[in-house]
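Q&A log
Question type: sequence-to-structure
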Amino acid sequence: MADAARSPQGTRKTQRRLPPELSILLVLIGISATFEILGWVLQGQSFFANPQRLSIMILQVSVVGIIAIGVTQVIISGGIDLSSGSIVGATAMISMSLAQVSTYARAVYPSLTDLPVIIPVCAGLLTGLLCGVVNGALIAYTKIPPFIATLGMMVAARGFAKWYTKGQPVSFPTDSYASLGVGLTPVIIFICVAVVMHVVLRYTRYGKFTYAIGANPQAARVSGINVERQIVKIYAVAGVLSALAGIVVAARGLTAQAGMGQMYELDAIAMSVIGGVSLSGGRGSIVGTTIGMIIFGVIISGFTFLRIDAYYQEMIKGAIIVAAVVADVHRQRKRLKKA
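Response status: OK
Response body:
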């Protein structure tokens, strides 16, 4: 009798220990199996047996995945970042303008051509850092909602990108700069960023402070955390990662345009939410976001494989995002009831 009485409790404890990423992984497996079956039924071929399709799928989402990692820690802190796509555009323009070859007659800065790759990369990262610091300072010290602060930056950064070269694209980078987007380099960059940010969020004070602020900012402040300073740091990191994505996407396309990065911020948020990051803050992980990124890539690639029209893809993508948010709200309600 005693063992029987303890068994439900033991089962519940075991269930609590299961990582939340496991359920997201099961969703990924289910979606992948669905596309594989539909591939054989509708197209007469395998969805996953084509290595080229898989590499293209991974490359498509790796750049946005870099942004999603920065967005993940922002959402964990209880905030939101709508400016990341525009920062991509502004960063791409600035970094590419400093990475042009001297043989191009219409270089933006004729006296600053053939520079070492570190210079345009640092210029781009500093641009993202500045945008992120402005976002964080506005949110932390003026107390305006993150939605409004980052929306303002989204418009301003996009306007700057258009003004910078009067709407003209910037092309002809050096070989060293272009190498940042060659082959699987964007994927390698994403993996490195993901590993570093996973360690930072899970094992450092920065990560603990970020989760604490997202869970309860007042309790975090009472416990001695400088909430305002931490918020500035969080948005600064997000800005730098958006800038890194801008550098990579410009190098991959061998050109920079003011319109680069449009809708990237929404895709990044979608990857985070699909990956289990709670929009109410305080919960989520880089591992979950990575799985969410792969789910996102599988869905996009699967729709293309099944030859579903682009406008249907956008509608279905929107429905998936809404469903992920509804699932998050449902989890939050269940947690509150149990408490």
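Response note: The longest helix spans residues 310-338.
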